[in-house]
Request: fold
Amino acid sequence: MKPRVGIPRALLYYNYFPLWEVFFKELGAEVVLSGLTNKKILDDGVNCCVDDACLPMKVFHGHIIELKDRVDYLFVPRLISVERNEYICPKFCGLPDMVLNSVKDLPTVIDCTINLRNSSSSLRRAVLDVGRLFTGDYRRIYTAYRKAVLCLESFEGLMEKGATPLEAMKGDYSKAGEYHYSIGLIGHPYNIYDNYMSMRIIDKLRDRGVNVITQDMICSNELDRIARDFSKPMFWSFGKSIMAASRYLIDKRHVKGIIYLVAFGCGLDALVGDLVERRIRKKGIPFCLLTIDEHTGEAGIDTRLEAFIDMLEWGGTAKCW
Ligand code: SF4
Reply:
């Protein structure tokens, strides 16, 4: 029987799942995903996770609980840095420890460390360490990883054509629909693309005839180029891409407005949100900051979204909270 590797449908699932899936499958494992986020997953996560964790971390814990009894391994990498000279949020560094201390009766947790801040050697080590759990054949491990990287590149290519991660994972994206105008939607991918947490914000905007451009739909080289012009280097990878995307949207994409979706309890969003908002306001572009939290009623988000869209269509430049 194939070993079953559980991958929670949360956090960096929206960035890296195609890579992880191909890698584990090429090593002969069965990949098992947790279900779509729902109220039970959210409640389980909120109940077991430490109080001061942010919403996405709590949701991640709920996915762990949903998966843990169905798999032989749980994949919870310790991500310290995914780009040279940058860091990812500190909560990712301690994620395996949070999970191990918060959730009982776990299967084996694969908690390899990825730290690309100074060199890529930790990635090679992690690939090898994880691969050795399934095979002693080093060549097979590296071949699996190369195939996985190719798959990730084609996934990212589809997103740069305008697909959301979920559309790109299906692999056959073609831009559909006639849109009246575009707006930018920025924020952490796990907030924007998790339909339960974001309350289907992308679908709601598209249903109103709005073309949505997220930071993942912008060429990554372009974002890197913009980030090099920051007055100070932004060493948080998430913050860098959100700030670069907002500048790109302001300067190049002729968007009618920008929405920033933030999660309750996120320290990074508190800082970056202010920097982003100041620049957008200077340019006179309508801006809407939407905060998502543990409440599941959609009325609050719907009302603000409707008001923002109405304002855009009347040609306003106000700010909406
Ligand atoms: S960046 Fe913010 S939302 Fe993301 S894990 Fe860190 S604190 Fe949570």
